[in-house]
Amino acid sequence: MPMPPASVALAWSSELLxxxxxxxxxxxxxxxxxxxxxxxxxGLLDTPGLRMVETTEAxxxxxxxxxxxxxxxxxxxxxxxxxxxxxxxxTTDNPVFPRVHEASARIVGATVAGAEExxxxxxxxxxxxxxxxxxxxxxxxxxxxxxxxxxxAIQWLLEHGCDRVLYVDVDAHHGDGVxxxxxxxxxxxxxxxxQSGESLFPGTGxxxxxxxxxxxxxxxxxxxxAHTSDIPWLRAIEAVVAPLAEEFAPQVIVSQHGCDTHxxxxxxxxxISMDGLxxxxxxxxxxAERHAGGRWLATGGGGYDILSTVPxxxxxxxxxxxxxxxxxxxxxxxxWREEVAxxxxxxxxxxxxxxxxxxxRTWVDGFDPDDPVDRAIMTTRRxxxxxxxxxPLTA
Length: 395
Known about the structure:
Residues 25-319 form the Histone deacetylase domain. By secondary structure, this protein is of the alpha/beta class. Helices cover 34% and strands 10% of the residues. It contains 11 helices and 8 strands. Helix 1 packs across helix 9 (309-322) and helix 4 (100-120) runs parallel beside helix 5 (149-159). It starts with 7 loop residues before the first strand and ends in an 11-residue tail after the last helix.
């Protein structure tokens, strides 16, 4: 179901394409360029209520709200050939490139700008497509992430009067950096629905990991089996996030929409369709409308099938944020398909979806102990829900 029209701020600058680890790295800036080109070709930038928000580099003071100053100094000092493995810099995952600090700080600036838009009331929704760098730790880069823009945006909200933030991460990888930043903070509930750490980086995020002594139940992890498909994946998101959102009553929902859960992604082994990715965005938008006064900040994240998956997934994210009905049957604009073909005689997708029916059975229909995903869901509910006064069986 499409959301009603909403004012949405799209935090974007072509300078965000400067976050470039080099030829052959999976985190290719072309994925963002192609996404923005598809958004333009679909006419989404002309949607009433959608505003482009210019981005600036985050200051060291802003970065220091979630990162150690020694780490910031190390990133700023980095150049070609720089190596600091202890801080995760100059590694295969995180090679250092010229102006790495500036490029990384601009992503933080974009996502924090989105947080400002939503919290100030200038926009109901905000989208930071370049954001979602959820692996970065306070003192180390990790998993293609230098600075943690999501953690910085949540911290900005807390410092400007927000008392309750719900973070929902549907990337294939565990949102470990954001979880760690707020591990012992009861003002933030972090929910990560991801491929199990038993089969995927970073190897963390299990159901028993529920937060620090002052915030039990505020870290929520739903580790799913490899090859989980649309319907059980959506069921997992709804079964865990919806009851927590109702009970916690967040003032803002912040979400990370890494699309590396898609079946085409080269780095993961999940089995989610484009239709499932869109449905997840709609579900989160509806939860924000119902429980957070409509205040929703969405970011990008992982996604390494850069020609077919990433542009479509994040074009859908912008459409959902703006309340635009963009069904999966919508033809992909010919101009964009020609652009993709020109990159190397490549076939672009014909439609905005994969033609998959993603109608799922909600949790209230009953727990199936023979279903491995239902067992994972129940393990998480039993680990977390009692801390919130919720019954794992019936909530």
